[in-house]
Amino acid sequence: MGYCFTEDGMMSVWSELEKRYDIYAPKRFAGKGRFSDTDCVRYGQVHSATEIVFDKKAEYSAKEFLLPNAETLFYFTEDQILESACKEKEMLVFLRSCDLHAIKRLDAVYLEQGFIDSYYKRLRDKVKFVLMGCPKAFDTCFCVDMGTNKSTDYDMSIDKVNDKYYMDCKIEEWTELFAQSAERVQDVQPAYVTETKTHVNLPVQMPNTMLQSDLWREYDGRCIACGRCNFVCPTCTCFTMQDMYYTENGKAGERRRVWASCMVDGYADVAGGGTYRKKHGERMRYKVLHKVWDFQKKHGYPMCVGCGRCDDICPEYISFSHCVNGLKKACKEVMENE
């Protein structure tokens, strides 16, 4: 059973939900775009459904509410360590199918690899997800080919059609609240993408010679190793540690977990001054193979969810989807010649 809300009905429900949840969704930040006099659509706290941007892709993903870009783990003094407090209020996060599938990838990394990351879990336990219907793909999306265009693993779904909101709710405790402000309707299903302009073909075999393929040398000159692709990616999980000292003697301060990027200088450095991947093409190889090959071998599904944000953000117009297709072609040629 679903619900159909008018804007007034949605406002009534929203005010009740905000008593329990901090609500986050893609919203417009005026004048905050990457270029002058442009806006930015990214995740932020919203106080009404009218703030949610349904017709544009968020430039950044929803992962930062589970994995903040800078998160204090604990505070320390000379003789004491105090773990940071967790956010008290629960969170309600609106996101598209590709980003919801990305949460599955984050869970696999932080909760299912033989250990549980307590800092991730304490936030994860506080989140409920609202799937935003996505009837039409954006130019760089390739979610259909990645199998992430549709999801049923949500707590609630929402589709905006003209000036009405259609919602499917799986949480019983909300049904009474919704029934007071909405019309009940049959068979509400979130819209999902069925075709994309961009297509990818993943390799089914990976010859060892692909590690030294000329395919990667193209990116030695094109890629500038800025790391933007990592920071907008909903499934990148790498981080580093930073200590911030409050005193000159370094005996009081805090330790932070901060996003890291496999594409930037310093990520692959080791003791003694060495580094595993100096060339930018080598870093590109590492990222691509992890997204479409290594992770899949371990978990049974690729890490990439086909959101296309890496293509959107790259200042050098490097296309991840084009690289994956090139990898597929190169693998096929090698296998045919063996």
From TrEMBL:
PROSITE patterns: 4FE4S_FER_1, 4FE4S_FER_2. Keywords: Iron, Iron-sulfur, Metal-binding. Pfam families: Fer4_22. It comes from the Bacteria. This is Anaerobic sulfite reductase subunit A. The keyword Chloroplast does not apply. NCBIfam families: sulfite_red_A (TIGR02910). Residues 213-244, 295-323 form the 4Fe-4S ferredoxin-type domain. Signal peptide: none annotated.
